[in-house]
Design a protein that fits this description.
mainly alpha
């Protein structure tokens, strides 16, 4: 009886060991490839190829499509931030109507913005390097 129990235990240990070996052997390389691909997407490192390619295993296809979309939006945000930093460093970071529109769209989350202004009753005009002003009544 003890001999049968030890034989069963030995067979169980061999089966568990073989199963772990097969799982590690069959999933180890694809998981390493997936991790490298994700690292390349995250860091923007494309030295291995022009565009990092996802692993070809069907097991990872749902994850691959989601991560690809996430990486493309991350790369777009990274490019915009780099452009903004470049403009700021070049002292070209002035407000333009387009930059104001984009900034307000992001902050208002789809709400409408109404700008109301009351102009001065002055008219400014440039004369050479000087700016001259004259009082003008508001047009009704």
């Amino acid at each position: 009886m003890l001999r049968h129990a030890l034989t069963g235990l030995a067979q169980t240990l061999v089966l568990v060991g073989m199963t772990l070996f097969i799982v590690r052997w069959s999933l180890g390389k694809p998981l390493r490839m997936m991790a490298q691909w994700l690292r390349d997407l995250r860091t923007g490192d494309h030295s291995a190829a022009i565009k990092p390619l996802p692993p070809k295993e069907d097991l990872f296809s749902p994850l691959t499509s989601e991560v690809t979309q996430l990486a493309s939006s991350l790369n777009a945000a990274r490019a915009a931030a780099e452009e903004e930093a470049r403009l700021r460093d070049a002292a070209l970071s002035q407000w333009t109507p387009e930059r104001l529109r984009i900034s307000m769209q992001g902050k208002l989350n789809g709400s409408r913005l109404f700008a109301v202004s009351n102009r001065e009753p002055y008219e400014h005009s440039g004369q050479g390097s000087d700016i001259k002003w004259s009082c003008r009544p508001a047009d009704w």
